Amino acid sequence: MYKKGLVFWLTGLPCSGKTTISKKLKKYLKNKSESVQRLDGDILRKTISKDLGFSKKDRIKNIHRVAYLAKILADNGVNVIVALISPYQKSRDFARKVCPNFIEIYVKCSIEECKRRDIKGMYEKALKGKIIDFTGVQDSYEEPQNPEITIDTEKLSTEDDLKIIINYLKK
Ligand SMILES: Nc1ncnc2c1ncn2[C@@H]1O[C@H](COP(=O)(O)OP(=O)(O)OP(=O)(O)O)[C@@H](O)[C@H]1O
Ligand SMILES: [Mg+2]
To answer: Which of 18, 129, 156, 158 is the most buried if burial means most Cβ atoms within 10 Å?
Structure first.
């Protein structure tokens, strides 16, 4: 039987470390000759979800699209790494139902530290009111209730982030 891929679903506040971890994990899996596709919110928002905004309705639609995309890839043997804020538990639960081998990874970082990092200057814009629907400032982020993995990026190095995922895979 053809083996289905894993779906690593990285969720967390802006600047928590989703993209950073997803790239590291991709490199690790590639080195193991696994096929892998990264689905990053920043890229998806410029492509398949170019038509969507950041209202709750549009955010949910975006998460559902990414879930279906991840499913199609995973069903065909591709390991998928999703890096998406995906702020709502209900939407992540939807993705869990849709995708085979779903691994929810909570990329945990305090809002204070995320604001300090502010690598794209988005928190600053949101705090000044130049963006009105930014997660962590005006929009809510619902912490995962039962993630398979939690990675505290405030306490760990990026090397240790990866070790936590590898340890989980070994179990
Ligand atoms: N342990 C860690 N894991 C991941 N990132 C870390 C860690 N420690 C510090 N960082 C830093 O935090 C920042 C995280 O940025 P990154 O783009 O990965 O966030 P993101 O969650 O993808 O944000 P966004 O939702 O805006 O795309 C990077 O500058 C990274 O170097
Ligand atoms: Mg990112």
So the answer is: 18
**Which ligand is nearest the CA of 12, by number?**
1
Q: How far is the CA of 110 from the centre of ligand 1 (A)?
A: 12
Q: pTM score > 0.70 for this model?
A: yes
52 token code pair: 């969507």
Residue 3 CA to ligand 1 centre (angstroms): 31
Q: Which tokens in the block code for residue 165?
A: 């995922």
Structural class in CATH, domain 7-170: alpha beta
Is the CB of 158 inside a 6 Å radius of any atom of ligand 1?
A: yes
Residues acting as catalytic residues: 86
Instruction: Give phi and psi for 161, each to the nearest 5.
Output: -50, -50
Q: How would you class 157 by CB atoms within 10 Å of its CB: exposed for 0-12, middle for 13-18, buried for 19 or more?
A: exposed
Write out the H or E segment, with its range, that includes residue 21: helix 18-31
Q: Enumerate the domain spans of the chain.
A: 7-170
